[in-house]
Design a protein that fits this description.
The complex is a heterotrimer of chains A (161), B (522) and C (113). Chain B has 522 residues and is mainly alpha-helical. Chain B has helices at residues 7-26, 30-58, 90-109, 118-140, 144-162, 169-200, 205-211, 216-233, 241-248, 251-276, 285-306, 313-335, 339-378, 394-408, 416-429, 431-456, 472-490, 492-508, 510-518, and strands at residues 61-64, 85-88. Chain B has a domain at 282-490. The two termini of chain B are 16 Å apart. Chain C has helices at 2-22, 26-48, 70-101, 106-112. In chain C, helix 2 (26-48) packs antiparallel against helix 3. Chain C has 4 helices and no strands. Classes of the chains: A mainly alpha (161), B mainly alpha (522), C mainly alpha (113). The interface between A and C is medium-sized, with 21 and 22 residues.
Chain lengths: 161, 522, 113
Amino acid sequence: MRKERQVLAIGVLASALIFLGLYQTFWGHLCPGDGLTGGGSVVFALILALPFSGSSFFDRENRWKLLAVAETAGALAFLALAHVDLGSTLFYNALAGQGGLFGQSLPEGGNVGPFFSSGTIALINGALALLVIGAFGRLVTAFFGASSSEKHRREEEGENA
Amino acid sequence: MDWQTHLPALIVAFPFLGAVVTPLVSLAGRGARHLWFLLSSCGTTVLALLLWRRVALKGAILYVVGGESWDLALPAGLSLPPRIVLAVDALGALIVVVGALLAFAGTLAYLPSDRGTPEEERSFVVLYLLAMSSALAMVVTSDLFNFALFFGLFSLASTSIVTFGKKKGAAVIAAFDALLFSGVLLLLILFAVALLYGRYNTVNMAALARLLRFGFVEKTVLVLFAAALLARYGALPFTSLFTEFLGEASPAAGCILISGTLVGFYALVRVVFSLYGTILGEGALGWVFVVSGLLSISFGLTFGFRSRRFPLFPGFILLAQTGHVLLGLGVALRSSCHVRAMADYGMVALKGALSLAVVSSLACALLFLATAFIRRWTSSEDLVDVGGLAKVLPKTAVSFFLASWVVAGLPPFIGYVPKLLLHQSLFAFNPLLGAVSIAASIGAAVLLARFFHGLFLGPLRVESLSQKEASLSAVLAMGGLLCLLLFLSFLPSWSLTRWIEPSVSVLLDQAGYVKIVLGGGL
Amino acid sequence: MRDFVVFSVSVLFLLGLGGLVFKKNLLKKTMAFSVAQSSVVLFFVVLGYRHGSRPPLFTFASEGDLMALPSAQVMATATLILSVAVTAVLLALIVLLHRHYDTVDGEEIRRLL
């Protein structure tokens, strides 16, 4: 029962962190945030959830591959978005104010801030967040894997002794 | 606008793309990965040469990242640049070219055959290209916070690649110490950037140069920058970790580390001359450089003579050359407030310092490659256990010999040009300093002769070699650097007038730098 | 008030540096580095603060009040992420060393080399 309560608490915290990370990533043009910090928040959620992860889909190998794909995809998307408008400069916000998806104009005065007003900024932030999640996620998984394998090794040595 | 307008950004983006795509290319096998590594590195070097050519033809290049126009740093109504600005002048172009060439030599020297698992090899290539990208980014950016971020990234990548393929704890503990130290340097730089940002509301170097006053905060910032960048350049008394760290590096890793020290030198002169410039006055900084230079020379030569571990030798020699460069910089700084002194010996000292920084990086990289390969082939690090290698490794012996000649500053090779300029200017500034410099050069020549004799002459002492002669990658890497040094040696006047003098002119022209960055597009 | 914060930041940084220099345990050195880097992050946040300002969110843009500088906060978070990366690599190197030498005492490791 205690373990279930722990898992519930961790789940709530991790969910909150993931939402925070997504907010920082995709509203980073309207508040101090970007893909780096948003991705970092999601990784913190991963750090919380790792010791309790029991689902077979998220076993170490699958998780590792998924994160590797995320890292490469994020980096490639980041570079691709940088070259959206080669007629001006790299990272030029070609979609801003152009209408359509991500090109809405910001209404005057303070407001919540429409999501689709960032142009390429939200997309670049998203790509960066994916890169950070992939890279840091693999790092954290490696640490967790290293400490668990170390624990198993010591347990086995204890049994054999 | 043609595609070459994007060169300052492409210099950073291209190796980064190489790093990102490496995991995908690795799926096709080891050969594909090695080919991709070579292509990425070669492509970056070609871009660097194109950048230098463009700067030589059209003058300094400006690039505003994310801006509507590539050269509009100050949009209407703004007094401070809102975006990251990349600015490459003659000095920046020179350092970019030399840095890229050093990194390319490291790529050629990379031997995947005796590395670890495919995952380790893949990670090595990714980190190497990231280190290359961040080293070049540090040169082209004029945004100090951006510089700090790339400084951190370079430290991370370069310290990590030293540990690859190594089972020895010495490499890992050296990497730990180096990374911790680089982390502290990063924090010092960030502190300095934060102080400047708090005072002037900008982190762009040209904007700061226009606004800077020399108060207590600015002096604190100067101390922080000088300490961090002198340590990055590998000078004493701020660090002796670099020699030990370089001694543990593989041939490829060592080349990128040496290019990193050259970038450290560039950052140091940029901060001193372009950021602070004339407001420094006749302060103590010049003497700090002179003292640091003397300490570096004495440490490098003393420990070089005491040491029997030949992998450490290029590090000690590089440290001694760093000392000479700092002597020249110190003298140039001390004379910068006096027109007569500057004309008599200050300019000459600066030319000597800049040209020695470049030439010694190339020559010490060649020395390093030779010793690193010998260590790999003989599985030994003690000078006593090796000897007579000229009989079995003639190409390596010739490379080492010619590199030694360049470092010693003896004619007819290019090494004598910067040494001559330095000795002349130091002697004119202070005869005692000149005498010390000349004595140090003689000491370096003796040290080089000692190591050459110990490694290559006498009876063959090595029982077995894992290579009969230098492998193709070793020949390409060492041969490439050697050809470059020989090319410069055949054309010393050309290299001085086309590479060094324009670099010195832009370095001393602080107002020109500000105008390039802030006046663009108007 | 700002002077007090700058003083605190300096003390924190020096404490971190002190730990780096005087501690032999590699983990403690890494923790000391984390303390030093948090002082830099704090410094950036403080620099962006304006007395009586609102958080720099676009929602508050119309209310005419002073806003804290968002760029300082972005620089702080970027510094944080970079420092986390450095700390992570340091810890990875410690794991490697511990695997080989079964200790995280720096002097002990150098003795065993």
